[in-house]
Each structure stands twice: as structure tokens, then as C-alpha cells.
Amino acid sequence: MKYKKLIIIVSVIVLLGCFALSVLNGLGTVEGKVTITHTDEDSWQIDYNFDQSIIGIMTGPETKKYHDSYWDLPESFHFTKDESGYSWLKKKDKSSFKKLSVNVKTYKKVVLYAPQPFANFDKGVSINTGPLGFASKIKLLELVEMMHNFDLRYSFIGLKDEIILIPNSDTTKDIAIKGSGYFVFFGNSDMITESEQVQLILDTDFPSSLRGDILSTTEKFTTLYNQEFGEVLDGKLMVQMSYDKSPRNEGGGFGIGGGAQNGQFSGIMTGSLDSIAIEKVILKLRAFMAHEMGHIWQPHLGMDEMRWMNEGGAEIISHLGMVKLGMLKEKGFYTFLNKYLIESIKDLEKVSLEAPHRKGYEQLNYSGGSIAVWAASAAIDGDNKSDNIFNMNRELAKFSKDSLIRFPKYCIASTFTKLGVNQEKIDGIDHFINTKHKNNAEFNIETIKKISVSKGILFDDLTISLENTNIKFKRLTRNQSSYLQFKIKNLKPINAAIDDISKLLNSDKYINNKLIVSWVAKYKDILKELNIYAAKKNILNIDELKVLKFYRNHENIIKDLNNKFINNELIKFKTLFDKIEDNPLSIQQRKSIVTDEDSTLVVAGAGTGKTSTVVGKVSYLIKKNEIDAKEILALAYGNDAAREVKERVKEKVKHDIESKTFHSLGRAIVQKFEASKNKISDAATSKYVLHNLIADILRVMIKDERCRKLIINFISYHRYPAKYLDQFNTQTNYFEYLRKHEPETLKGDLVKSFEELLIADWLYLNGVYYEYEYPYEHKTASMQRNQYRPDFYLGDGKYLEHFGIGKNGKTAPQINSQTYNASIVWKRNLHKQHNTTLIETYSWERQEGTILQNLEKKLKDIGIDIKPNDPEVIKEIFERDSVNKKIVSLISDFLGIFKEGQYSIEEISNNLSGINASERERYKVFIELFDEVYKRYQKYLKDRQELDFADLIARATYLINNRKVKINFKRIIVDEYQDISRGRYKFLKSLIDNQTDCRIMCVGDDWQSIYGFNGSDINFTFNFEKVFGKTERIDLDKSFRFTQPILDVSSRFIQKNPLQLKKVISARPSKIKNTLEIIESEFGNKEYLYDVFKRIDSERPKDKKWNVVILGRYNHLEKEIPEDLSKKFKKLNIDFMSVHKSKGLGADVIVILRLETGKFGFPGTMENDPIMNLVRAEEQTYANAEERRVFYVALTRAKEKIYLCTNNFFPSEFINELKTDEYPEIEYDGIVVNQALLACPECTNGKLYLKYPKRVNGYAWICSLSPYCMGKAKFCKKCQKLPGIDRNSCLDPMCENS
């Protein structure tokens, strides 16, 4: 079989000859031959032949899954496990054997804690032929004690092009192994890199960026160790390194493991490197390589009783070597040493260093061993501990290996004696190595007078002075010493913490978060130290453990206690919840009522009983009788809602509570502080009065020269949120923007761009006569071309054309530059031909900010004088409805939200950095103008000793926060919370934060947040826990108003916006067949409502009157309802409302008008002035986010049936969405219209609509984006009813031209 590129990494050391042989008698040398045959791609046969009988082959720690799955044994053999956990291959009858043949399959998958004795690798295989154990892909297994000498010869059969490599030998397929074994590599030669002293075999999966550092590090340490210990290698150091992304253990993470023997070491790096800094990887890799190389150069003390010397010595010399070579700072060395000191404390309390082979204490060889070696070096005379370490290792290296194994203590003592260490210090070191360090002193803590500490090099002596005696603790680690002092000083606080915990656990109340935060704050210092001592493995007493356990698990503990409390309360107050309303409250309503967290958010979908929940909460609190009724505050948004809650509570539980609006509460607080009633300004209660007041303020400002300039600047050049073609992706988007804003000049002309508006208003304000698009004085009209109309006629044969081109003569990319420039040439030639004067302005001049300056010069060049208008003209302009209403309405709307949100001029000015640079000047002018109006408005209120509604909230908030006005509400319940605004939020927060234990429950539905235009901010709902702290959220999941089809459609529709809170609600089944219907009337049919109401009347139960509400997106749509509708359908109670006004109400049937595209369609496309965004909540990025919520509110007013009215030409995008397969509940049977034919032939994105119904032969249909798009169409010649592409096509599917 062809040798394939193999998939597992080189560094996994395969256990073929990695075994200890157990013979029947004596310690003779075992001789044998191992033949390894590569039978196919992933299978190998291993034949063992020994010269004497053996009883088993040790194959490493037991891995049952691996052995069972991948080893095919003779029937008489099996795997067994010894006391140390190692796996042996033995005969089932326990008899001896000399021969054994097994088949092994390549191990291709990673199994945690599963060693891989035989594996395929990427371009090679590494085999450990020695008895020292092996490294698996996951975990470095411990070294195995060598039991016997052996003399084995390995033969490889079935290899193809691979080379076989062992240290310092020629490559061959037959390898003779005597004594210690090797890490044998066979595979592709391109994996091998050599330097002067190192032969590196690097797996191809290993990060190539680390290759250079591996070579450099091993070269440097080879040189260093040769200098310190002498040369021990016969040739080059052989290094095998591999990498596997799989984690090293179940905990995951990055790690490195491996082993060393006979002038070589092999290592594996495991775990993902994605989240680890490369510097950390390099540092760990260097420490590993230095450690393994340390084993090669230092005495090989591999026996259990000296293992600490082996591993601890390798750790110390490797880290000191890194310091010497500049790879590690000295501080880093002591950090490593301190870490090992802390780690070894716990183990040294249970075992000595000479017995770390006990299961669970293997790491002590490294940690405790390092400390012991370092301590030993401290006993040697000499200033440089680093040199002492290397001297000590050099002396130990002089002993024979047999001596070291048989007489370890003699070797150490002899070494220390040679190095000048006195016997007392040698005995101390021996004591440290062989003694457990556990303290069992007992004493009465109450009799302590003084604690004193005597600090030594490594250990402290601590003396506790009692009344009549002293107790000494000797040889305490620094950690033990500080912990004992902590224990003594904090006995009483620990007892107090236990008492507090007991009170919490036995409480019969809801345990709120503030209580836990208070407990943590009270004991924060103790908790911090307990955590530190626990991490250092100190033995904590029972009370300390209780405190720490409660702290670490308090969230789950409190959660369980509160769940028990809730269940008990539900049983205790069942009667109240069953009878408080006509229908029993739902389970979720009950849970929301008894939950008493610091902040509770009740997310209540439409019809789920928000008000019932509020009434239930108040009634429950009163019945529970833990707080007074006067300490309960219910807040609502309107007087009617506040009054309803108050009356219903009074009816249910016979108590009065404070049920107020935000404004009435604010007024009460202000009046209480000022000890006088305050008058609410008429400007606050009447929009008409407010607008007149703002207009009067502006009129007064016009008399002041500075203010007049502000006003005229804004009116003249900034009254529209101007945008230009180069700011849009398509010409259609530009047309749609113009259509929304319809730029009208000061003279009253509708112009086709904001650049034309800028020019026209400048001409007007500077006394330049002009006529907009006045017909050219010479006839140009023909059958192919309309009469030429220049942009501006200036009189006396002089004209001004504005061209939308750049300096290079090119148009915006949305415009056909060639056609446009051809029209420019035609116009220029025409003027030249007829000897008329043409001056030109360009878009590039506007972009550079020079258009008006250049225009003035061009006008003077053709003899037109500039005469700026006087103040009287400015007054006249301001008084025009088109100007006055626009600026007064903008300032009035801005003022209301500015004051309510408690903004400052400085704050909104600082937010201008996020505004597009081309639009920023408009914002600056407005802020400067508004600031002046605001100051005069505030002075007006002050002079009249009046307040507006925003003042009530802002003043009350200030008084609570700064003047510490006393309030006494322990529970606050807020209804319709989704409509919270910035000012109301600040007010509510001040109420909570300035009381000791005031808790809130906010009931609302983010799906019904529809007052963004008025300052409400849905983000206070989305981010409830961020703004109010620890929150328990409860969703009301049952609607009592509408049926399941209405619920399904409305919920699916609103949740298209990914930012809305997700919730699942259920409702009653519908008894009506078609619950939601789209009524698609013929375009232009004004009688369709009669047909709709005939259907409603026919479906109405005969013995019942139905309440029918007609909903419109805008109030003025009421005019579209036939006046005699109610007379014709007397069994129907018919009413009209705007969607916003209908919120909170319901009707049997809902009819929604004008679900069409267009200015007053649904979704609404009326665009607010972007200046309002300075004081409004940031708009959601999802298209029509608020309009979706408005539509959701409209849908959920219906109890039984919904009719969605549109026309067949201009259905809204909401209608188009509802017609998709996502909404199978929707029924419709509309007129089929070829929408493609309805597209404007000019811009393609606008739609044709009937503008001139009497033009039978002419262009009766124009583009919906007119006058900015010039698209138009004629009636179909056949039916004279609908348009088509031309007179020989038709939209009507019944027409012959269709």
C-alpha cells in the first residue's frame, strides 16, 4: 500500500519497546529481537522474541479503550493493571513466555487521558525504545522505574522511502539497543533541520515561526550546560517536537510535555494558540526545553526517593539558565519560585519529599523539589546562589549512578560537606525533605494579648502571647504565618458574618440584591483574604468555609430561597389572586406580583393584563401588611390611568394609595419644598399658546441686529435639512428625499434641488429679480422637445443656469454624464445663437463653499446690482405661514424634549462631532438660535412665576438629588414603562437612589413603544438592568384580549426587528374563519369602506352589536370615512381613532386605513427634521423599527377580526410582507395588477399614479417622485382605464392590451 501523508503529530511517543520486562529469576540481562512490520497503511505487526522467559511486557498506564479497540492479541493474552496503575501485557494463566505476536492499528483520534502507544504521524513516527515511559498526545505520563537491563534489536519491515534516525548513528532499518533506549524517528527527511550542535525534527503541524527559536534556545543551552557540567554528548543533541491543537486535558488550555534520555529529548505542544500571546508560548517552550536538557546534563536520579532532586534540580537550573541567557528576568525567576512554594505547602502537610510517588502528589517532585534544591543552595557558603546550584550539581555528577541510587542521603551529605556546609544545616535540609509540616497547636483565642513574628530566610516563627503563657509556632511559611494572624484578628467578624448568613437563610421574605450587596460590602476585606488563603491551599475552619462557600455560591443559594418564597406566597395569597379581577390572574401575573427584587421588569404583551398586574401588586403589598399603603406609589402616564389604578385598589382592598402621573408627583414635590402652589403655564397645556409664544419671542428677536442675523441665517439657508445628489446611492433615493421635504423658496416656488433653493433664496434676499423656470424668450418647442425653461430668468435677456457638474465637467455617477453635458452644450449654443446672456453656477462651487460669493461677482459682471433686503422684508418673510410654521414648530418640538430630557446647550453642542461635516453648520446655527429662544422662554416663565410640565419633573429631580427633599416610598410601580423618557427616567432614578430600600416594578411592553417622536426612549427598556441594577424579568404569557391568529401574525411581524425583546404569548382560539383579511380595493375607489362594512355586518353574531374602530396612521384620515357609514350600519358601533390614541383600548373589529405607499401611507414616511435627533433617542438601525411597533399596536386592538385596507396599485411594504408564506393566517383576494408596468418608465423606482384623470389622450399619469422625476404615461387606448408602457399596453388583466 502506498505510504500516505499521515495525520497525527510526531511528538506522540509510540510505545513499542517502551516496557519493563519482568523475568522469573535474577537480574540477568534480557536479550531479544523486536520485528515491526508495516502491514498496510494503518496496521502494524509486532513480533517479540526473547532469550529467556518473561512474565510480562509493561505498556504504560492502563488505557482500556485503546487496548480493547486497537490491539489484536492472541487468545491466551490480556492486559492487566498493577498497583501503580501501569498496564501489563501478560498471559491469562500467568505463565511465562518468550515469544509474542500482536497486531496494532494506528491510533488516529484523540481521547482524553488515553495514551497512544502506536500512532501514525505527519511524515513520520517516533518510537521510545527505552524503559522510561512515553509521552502521550494529551498528558505527559510519569517516568517508569527501570527494573532490568536489556539488550534488544529492532527490525523494521515494509517501510518505503522513510529514513530511520537515532542519535549519533547512521540511518538503518536495523537498530541495536543496549541499556537505555532511544527516541527513534523514522519518516521523511524534509522534517529534519540541523545546526552546529542540534539535530531538530519538527512536525509539519508545528508553528513554523517557532522553529528558529527552538534551534537558538537548544544551541544556547547546549553551550551553557557544556560550560557548567562538561560535555556529555557524543554528537549532536537530537530534538523531536510536535504540535496538536487538541487540549492536553479535560480542562482544555495550552501545555507542553515530553521526556529526555541518552542525548535527546522529545516534546509535544498541545492546545489552541489563538488566545495566547506568542511571548508566553515562547517562554513556556524555552522553559520546557531547558528542563529536559537539564535531565541530560545533570545526574540521572530517576528513582522514587530521589525524584524530587531530579525534577526540582532540572526546574531550578533551567530557570537560572534562562536568567543567565537573558531569556528571563531575575524577578521572573523569583515569581516562579514563589509559585512553587505556594503550591507545595498543601502537599508537604501530608507527605514528605521522599514519598511523592503516592498517587496525587506527583507535582510535589517539581514544586517541593525546586524549593528543596534552592534551600540546599542557600546552605552553601557563597554569595551567588546561582553558582551554588551549578556547583552542587557538578559535585553530585561525580558519584556513580549505583551509589546515587542506593545511598541518596550519603551522596547529598557528602556533596554538602565538600562544599563547606556544616552538619547542622545538613540536618535541617534533611528535616525539610523527610518531615511533614503540619501544625496541630491548640489554644484559647480569647486570651490572646499579643502576636509577634520573627522572620527567617524561608520560614517564620510566630509567638502568641496569652494571659499566662506563650505559644510558639515554628518553621511556618510566610503564608501560614499571615493566615494564622488573619484567623486570630477576624474571629469576631467571621462569627458576625455567620450570624448574618443564618438570618438570610431563615428569612421569610424575598431576599433582594441590595441586601446581598450590603453583606458583601460589610465583609469584603475578610472575603478577599479568605479567597487568597483558599487559593493557597490553607486549611480553613468550618465557619470560614461556611462564609466562603456562601459567598461563592450566594447567587444560586438566594435564587433557591426566593423560589421557595414565591411558591409559598402563591399558595398563601391564592384567594386574592383568584378574585382580584373578574378572571383569575395568570401564573406569570402572580409571580410578577410576589417577586420583590430591587428592580422587577414585567414584560407584558398586548392584552396580557398590565393594569390588572399593577392593581394586583398594590393589593398584595397592602394585604401582606409589611409596608403602609402610603408607602406605595403607582405611576402612570395619564390622569385617567392613574385614577383607574387608585379607584380599583380602593375597591379591592379598601385603601388609598398614591397613584399619580409623573407630572403630578413632580408638582407635589416642588410645592411641598416651596410651601406654595405653582401655576402651570398655558404654554404647557396648549400647543397653540406655545407656538404663539415662540413666534412672539422670534418677532422680538428680529428687532435685535445680532438675533436678526441668526434668524435670517437659519431661515434663508438652513430651514431645510439640505442634502445633495452626491450624498445618495441612487437618483431615486435622492428624489424620495426631495419628495419628503419639498424645498420651497422664500418667494414660494417649488424647486428641484437644494442647490437651486440656495441660489433662489440668495437672489431674493439680495434684491435680485428672478422668475423660476420662466419660458425662454425664443420658441424652442417642437414635437420632440418641450419649450426650454432656464432655471432662473433675471430679466432683460439675462439668464442663470445651475449645472450639477464637478470641476472636471463630470456629473454625479447616478446621472448620464454624456447626455447631461450634451444638454449643457445645447443651452450654451442656444443663448449664443439668440444673443441672450447666460451665467452659470456649478455643484463644485457649492462643495467648495464659494457658490454665493462667485454668483455675486458674476451678477455684477453682467450689470445686476445687489441690494440686500432691509429688516422690514425679513419681518415679512418670517410672517409667512410656510416659514413661520416651520421654524416655530421645530423650535417648539425641540424645546419640549430638550427641557423634559434635562439636556444642556453644552451637551448637545458636544454631540455635533458625530454629525456629517457637510451638515454640521446647520446644527450649529440652530443651536445658537435655539439657545437665545430658550433663555427668553425661561425668562418669560420666571417673570410670570409659572412652570411648564418639564419644569415639574426637572425641578423635583433636582430637589431630591441636591436638596434632599424627604420622600417615603418603599415600593414604586410604573405602568406603561416602555414609554419612559430621559427626564422621567432621571426622576424615577432619583426616587429610588435617595431612599434606603425602595424597590420598583416596571410594567411595560417594548413592542408597543411608539412615542419616540415625543421623547420616549426604548433603550431604557432594552437596557433595564444596566440602568436600574439587578433585575428580575418576568414575562406575562397569556393575552386576554385577542385570538391566537391575531397573536401569531402580530408577534411574528414585530419580532422581525431583532432588537425587540423576545417573548412567547398564548391566546384563545378564534371562532371566526378568516381572522385577518387584506382588502385590496381598486385604485381610486373611494367607496370601498361600504363594501368592507357590509362584510363586517354579515359576519357579526346576530344577537350582538360589534364595536368597530377604524384606525388611521394620521388624524386627518378621518375625512376619508363616509359621513353616513354609521347610519347605514346601525348594528355596528363605529368610531375613528389614530393608532396612537387607540393604545390601551380594544374593539371587536379593527379596520386599518391606507396601508399604502406615499407621504401619508403606512408605514409613515413623514420624516422629522434630523435636528430633533440631538434630543431624541438614537434611532434603531432596523428599517421602520418604530413604524412596525405602531402597526403592532394597531393589529392588537382587535378582539375578533382585522381588515387591512390598501389599493391594488400602491400597497405598502407591510402589506407585501403580510402576503408572503410567512403569514398563512392572512386572507386576501385582491385585484391582480402587473406591478412591473406600474413602475415609472423614467426612474424605474417611482410608481405611476393618476394625476390628471381628464387627460384622455395626454399624459394623465405621472411618477410618484414628481416633480423631481419627469416620468409620465398615458391611458390605455382600449379600456381608457389604466396606464401601460404605452397606449397599446394595460395594467388591467381583463383588458385586451394586457
Structure description:
By secondary structure, this protein is of the alpha/beta class. Helices cover 40% and strands 19% of the residues. Strands 2, 3, 4, 5, 6, 7, 8, 10 and 12 form a nine-stranded mixed beta sheet that branches. Strands 24-23-31-32-22-33 form a six-stranded parallel beta sheet. Strand 31, helix 34 and strand 32 form a beta-alpha-beta unit. Helix 18 crosses helix 19. It is extended. The two termini are 72 Å apart. The N terminus is likely disordered.
What separation lies between the terminal Cα atoms? 72 Å
| Number of DSSP E strands | 44
Number of helices in the DSSP assignment: 43
Low-pLDDT runs of 5+ residues are: 1-28, 107-149, 176-181, 399-411, 437-445
The class by helix and strand makeup works out as alpha/beta
Shape: extended
Provide mean pLDDT, rounded: 78
Beta content comes to 15-25%
User: What integer value in Å does the Rg equal?
Assistant: 45 Å
Helix proportion range = 25-40%
Largest sheet: 9 strands, mixed
